[in-house]
Amino acid sequence: MDDEVRRAEFEELARGLVEPLRRFLLRRTDPATADDVLADTLLVCWRRADQIPAEALPWAYGVARNCLANAERGERRQRRLAAKVASAGVPDVVPDPAEGSGDEAVTAALAALRPPDAELLRLWAWEQLGPGEIATVLGITPNAASIRLHRARQKLADELRKVDGRVGHEESREGRRP
User: Which of 67, 82, 116, 129 is most buried, by CB atoms within 10 Å?
Assistant: First the structure.
């Protein structure tokens, strides 16, 4: 099928799907998530245009339902990650540039780390890999990955204290007379 014909057919189909899918999603989630999931749904529909049955709407509802489930899983992963990082004494998240937002202090602290430490933290926080998986990526043992990750998280916490201005050398008064 010619690309222009395929595109024209999909655009015609999408015109009839967009509003019912938007309403379907808005009944299940917040408006921002609904818009994101709608875009994902239409992308899946475009990629699978040759598989769309004659009754496209029920099929598209199924795709939207799956895309919404994926978005919800991603949100749960983010919450678990935030809890994991918080319990480690590191900031709530290591900002992911792909998300378009982040804490400037964390970004600055991450930039101050040695590149290998920053990469370890990115693999752990952004890609949500455990020490065994990080070991595979970096070509090191799982034990080495675990140790390096622990140290990198501590270095990030130290850098955060510096960036936030909470760390400094306090003068000790011990053993001195006033």
Answer: 67
CATH code for the domain defined by 3-76: 1.10.1740.10
% of the chain surpassing 70 pLDDT: 78
Domain 88-163: which CATH class? mainly alpha
* pTM, rounded to two decimals: 0.50
**Total length of the chain:** 178
Domain locations in the chain as residue ranges: 3-76, 88-163
**Distance from C-alpha of 141 to C-alpha of 132, rounded to nearest angstrom:** 8
Buried b (16+ CB within 10 A) or exposed e, 39-67: ebbbebbeeebeebeeebeebbbebbeeb
Residue 116 CB-half CA count within 13 A: 10
* Helix/strand number for the chain, H first, E second: 7, 0
